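FAQ

Q: What does a record look like?
A: Structure on top, sequence underneath. For example:
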């Protein structure tokens, strides 16, 4: 097993993180908080936030100079545009004992294999930003060289930031990116538009924003609390026949909202394909 053991005999892993921005730092914070890592080597030109750099398990390197101890897993969390450049610097020092996990949008397994070698175990993952508070959802696809033990390492680390699902068809990653990868931004925009609509009905800006925000927060919490109940049933539960909600839903469900979301997701999917 590639895992080491701590004093409580819980499995811990060694990790190397290339790129510690919004996603990388959120993911690392969840591993540290959940006691899943014995050591994390972090490579990033920007200094780490104090709450991470003060942790004795974190070893910070402002650039890759070689000589960094090998680890069970190496996470590539840089922007897609610089993934190749950042990968090429480390490619010669990585062997198949280390599983690579890339979260870069649109970057295919075949691109990574062309840099790290076709025998290298590689996982491509699409996380999302609620990972920062353990409420994310991530989806992964692995190449054929990833062992069951390596899948378990990835699964353990990714589940520390929320739900994690495996898919077999990499072709679906652009759709996953369009839905859950970019999805949090759609919901934040929904809050903005709901607040704007409230203002147009005469509510002042602050009150309207706070009602819109809390309505989305409360509804999401209710959907989580009633996890076994479908979204359709939850919607029907707040829709009395002939009431105010039904009046609004007759407009919202006349097809235009669905068309806009179809167009938005298609645009995101197209961009994800372009990035690759
Ligand atoms: N944000 C999201 O919602 C989201 C969702 C799903 C997937 N992703 C994917 O996650 C990846 C990271 O996104 P992000 O939003 O976390 O970006 P970010 O906040 O810009 O983080 C990238 C980090 O990489 C650093 N960096 C730049 N060059 C480097 C190098 N050569 N070696 C090591 N580190 C380097 C950057 O430092 P400087 O700032 O100093 O350049 C920055 O701290 C992207 O590939 C993105 O597609 C993001």
């Amino acid at each position: 097993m590639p895992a080491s053991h701590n004093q409580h005999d819980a499995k811990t892993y060694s990790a190397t993180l290339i790129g510690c921005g919004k996603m990388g730092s959120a993911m690392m914070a969840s591993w540290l908080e959940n006691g899943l890592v014995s050591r994390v080597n972090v490579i990033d030109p920007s200094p780490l936030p104090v709450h991470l750099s003060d942790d004795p398990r974190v070893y910070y390197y402002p650039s890759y100079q070689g000589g960094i101890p090998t680890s069970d897993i190496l996470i590539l969390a840089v922007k897609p545009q610089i993934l190749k450049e950042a990968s090429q610097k480390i490619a010669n020092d990585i062997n198949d004992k280390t599983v690579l996990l890339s979260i870069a949008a649109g970057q295919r397994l075949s691109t990574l294999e062309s840099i790290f070698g076709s025998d290298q175990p590689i996982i491509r993952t699409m996380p999302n930003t609620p990972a920062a508070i353990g409420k994310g959802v991530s989806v992964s696809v692995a190449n054929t060289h990833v062992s069951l033990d390596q899948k378990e390492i990835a699964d353990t680390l990714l589940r520390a930031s929320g739900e994690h699902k495996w898919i077999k068809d990499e072709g679906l990653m652009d759709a996953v990116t369009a839905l859950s990868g970019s999805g949090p931004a759609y919901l934040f925009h929904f809050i903005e538009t709901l607040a704007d609509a409230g203002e147009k009905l005469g509510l002042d800006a602050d009150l309207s924003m706070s009602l819109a925000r809390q309505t989305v927060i409360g509804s999401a919490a209710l959907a989580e609390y009633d996890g076994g109940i479908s979204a359709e049933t939850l919607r029907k539960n707040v829709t009395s026949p002939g009431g105010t909600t039904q009046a609004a839903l007759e407009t919202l469900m006349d097809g235009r909202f669905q068309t806009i979301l179809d167009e938005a997701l298609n645009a995101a999917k197209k961009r994800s394909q372009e990035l690759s």
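Q: Is there anything notable about this one?
A: The first helix runs from residue 22 to 33.
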